[in-house]
Specification:
single chain, alpha+beta, ten-stranded mixed sheet, six-stranded mixed sheet, disordered C terminus
Length: 708
């Protein structure tokens, strides 16, 4: 390599070192995967978005039978069924005659063509239930008894049973009540208009009952009317309801145990008024079991009793449905959960964009208030629950490495293990878990889905940095299944109250899941992106010197938001805050509006009291809209380096001196080389004969040939 090239390379290296120590702004961003959760006002609107290719994947719930068939026939869409622990049943009020007669109920079930309901209402995406109400998803876990009578459709047998207990057919086609000698009074079966599949089941049930002489009329109604009619009064006859559950069959105790025969009562209690001492004993054994085998044995006994007594009629277990654009998402079904299925399918995304469409939801992603489908999907993608689930629905470690119930099923111990971090790099500890659970318990409202679960908890305490103790108010062997859906948020970021968007605005939802929240529009959309420091833009700077951020200035970094807009219009009345997290706590910087929907906050390094090292910065812009609120999140890492020390300065000066010395030496060498060249020319000239000196060689003549 030539000396001049060597000198150039040495000088370039020295300059780069000095510039790198003085001031640099280097955006470092890895490939980001993004997930957009978009809310639609109705199932029809969501189906239209799927048909137009605006949505990659969408959960479909409570869909009209004809619309489901439309999706099934669309050549561009693929319906992915997911095994379901939940079920749909017809509840009967056992407090009133003739529904309090078990033979009468047996006849009703024989007269009910459930397969017709399955094929029409669900388009085949589901299964018939046994009277024990356990779906096949439980069967894969060893919880079902295949020998239980399934009561196949047999209207002749139904008529025979009714005749045997004196409910004979009159000339008008309506059976006579033997206790009064009069025709049976009209009975009503209630269903919710928001669940078209349940409405279809209620309609078909009424038709089948009328065919065997029972005067039953289907009565669909609004949710408000349904819940004011069925749970609050005991004057109803029959109703159609769907139970959502996981691998924990605690609903056996909640729905049918006589200890839950309360008035007035929410739907999680014994609405039917069922009272069977044997069943009550087995249900109690289920909840107080000390082993999985004991729990299974008690569950099988409960199923046998339900099959004999029929306090509720099985209808179907409808598959959980995800509809996807063919080839867009590689779904990994997790039995019993849409949110777990999406989390398992999207967790390993390394790039690209997935659009999830959901009907309704996106209230404020706060499980203490509400947790609709959209909110629960967003929450699951942003957090790691204590317990996750295998494809068959069995629990496996999540944030919790292992868990253990005491023999009386009231004390739950959770061991977090090692290696789970929040998105800001800090470890998730037992203190964070306990603080999160206590915050949820203190702020949960009775209408929230988590209310029954959280109210089971008496105390939550920390045993050591990795172990949490949970004491229950009553025995519940399945508490790990129920509490396992909970998570940990950074304790220091939990809000003091539970006002609107409390968790969002505190920044606490920057949690431990595979994604972090980047933008939230209340009632409309949530934008998530891959979590982790590898995806952060990074600022490198030296304390006490000029730092180039988004703008130059003496020891200043300016943090800016992306343009804050909604439906194409800039939002000019928002608030902007930058939160800087260090090992010693957090520092908040208020920002201001600088125009075009952009907000900024400035950080001065001089005198800021920031220690050299990695600083984690979250910026948040919050604007109020006529329809709700919009929140925008961003994050960066500031690698703050200490000032140049005297030794470093001397080292760099020596480096510069070395460069100067090399340059001077190179010039001297070049001068000597030129002198030697001149001497050689002079010597050669002296040896040339005097007659040839100064004579130039003749130029050769060029000969051109012209072509004619």
């Amino acid at each position: 390599m030539k000396p001049r090239v060597q000198l150039f390379l040495i000088a370039a290296v020295m300059i780069l070192i000095l510039v790198g120590e003085a001031v640099t702004y280097l955006p470092q961003r890895s490939a980001q995967a993004t997930v957009v959760i978009k809310s639609y006002p109705s199932t029809d609107a969501l189906v239209q978005a799927l048909s137009n290719g605006e949505v990659d994947v969408a959960p479909i719930e409570n869909i009209a039978p004809q619309t489901l068939q439309q999706l099934k026939n669309d050549p561009n869409l693929n319906i992915v069924p997911i095994a379901n622990f939940g079920f749909t049943y017809i509840g009967a009020n056992l407090r009133h005659s003739p529904l309090n007669n078990s033979v009468f109920r047996e006849a009703m079930l024989y007269g009910f063509n459930r397969e017709r309901v399955l094929n029409y209402a669900l388009a085949g995406y589901g299964e018939l239930l046994s009277p024990g109400l356990f779906s096949s998803a439980y069967g894969t876990l060893g919880w079902t008894n295949e020998s239980i009578d399934s009561y196949p459709y047999d209207p002749a047998k139904a008529s025979e049973l009714l005749d045997s207990i004196g409910f004979n057919m009159s000339s008008t086609g309506v059976r006579v009540n033997p206790s009064t000698g009069q025709q049976l009074n009209t009975m009503f079966i209630f269903s919710k208009l928001t669940d078209p599949q349940a409405v279809a089941a209620g309609n078909m049930f009424a038709q089948d009952m009328q065919a065997i002489g029972l005067p039953i009329i289907s009565f669909p109604e609004t949710d408000i009317d349904f819940y004011s009619q069925v749970p609050v009064t005991y004057y109803f006859d029959l109703y159609v309801e769907t139970v959502s559950t996981n691998a924990a069959p605690t609903w056996l105790y909640n729905l049918f145990s006589n200890s839950n025969n309360l008035y007035p009562a929410p739907l999680s209690t014994n609405l039917m008024g069922y009272d069977n001492s044997s069943f009550n004993t087995f249900a109690e054994q289920l909840m107080t079991a000390s082993s999985l085998d004991d729990a299974r044995a008690a569950a099988l006994k409960c199923q046998e009793e339900l099959s004999l007594d029929l306090p509720a009629f099985p209808v179907y277990s409808k598959s959980l449905l995800l509809v996807e654009q063919k080839g867009s998402v590689n779904l990994t079904p997790i039995a019993g959960s849409i949110a777990e299925t999406l989390a398992a399918s999207l967790a390993n995304m390394t790039g690209g964009n997935v659009r999830i469409g959901v009907v309704g939801g996106l209230a404020d992603i706060n499980p203490a208030i509400t947790l609709g489908t959209a909110d629960s999907i967003a929450m699951r993608l942003m957090t790691t629950p204590l317990i996750t689930y295998s494809p068959n629905g069995s629990p496996k470690p999540g944030l919790a490495d292992q868990w253990q119930m005491s023999n009386n099923a009231t004390d739950l111990t959770i061991d977090l293990g090692q290696g789970t971090d929040f998105q800001n790099g800090n470890p998730a500890t037992a203190h964070d878990v306990a603080a999160t659970l206590n915050w949820l318990i203190g702020n949960v409202v009775p209408s929230a889905p988590l209310y029954p679960v959280l109210k089971l908890v008496r105390t939550v305490s920390v045993i050591d940095p990795q172990t949490v103790s949970i004491i229950l108010r009553q025995s519940d062997y399945f508490a790990p299944y129920e509490l396992g859906s909970l998570f940990a948020l950074p304790a220091a970021m939990l809000p003091q109250d539970n006002g609107p968007l409390a968790l969002l605005l505190s920044g606490a939802l920057q949690s431990s899941g595979p994604f972090e929240l980047a933008r939230f529009v209340q009632g409309a959309e949530a934008d998530l992106q891959t979590a982790g420091a590898g995806g952060l833009s990074a600022l490198f700077g030296v304390e006490g010197q000029d730092v180039a951020g988004y703008s130059m200035g003496g020891s200043k970094i300016e943090l800016r938001s992306q343009p804050l807009t909604y439906e194409g219009e800039t939002i000019e009345n928002a608030t902007f805050t930058a939160i800087i997290q260090t090992g010693n706590g957090t520092t908040q910087l208020p920002g201001s509006y600088i125009g075009y929907g952009v907000y900024a906050a400035s950080l001065n390094l001089d005198g800021a009291g920031l220690s050299p090292g990695n600083l984690y910065i979250i910026t948040q812009a919050y604007g109020q809209l006529p329809t709700g609120a919009i929140v925008q999140f961003a994050e960066q890492n500031l690698f703050l380096q200490p000032p140049l020390f005297l030794g470093q300065v001397i080292l760099y000066l020596l480096g510069l001196v070395a460069v100067v010395v090399l340059l001077v030496g190179a010039r001297k060498r070049e001068a000597r080389a030129r002198r030697r060249t001149r001497r050689r020319i002079t010597v050669a000239a002296r040896k040339t004969p005097r007659s040839l000196r100064g004579v130039r060689p003749r130029k050769s003549k060029r000969v051109t040939t012209r072509r004619d």
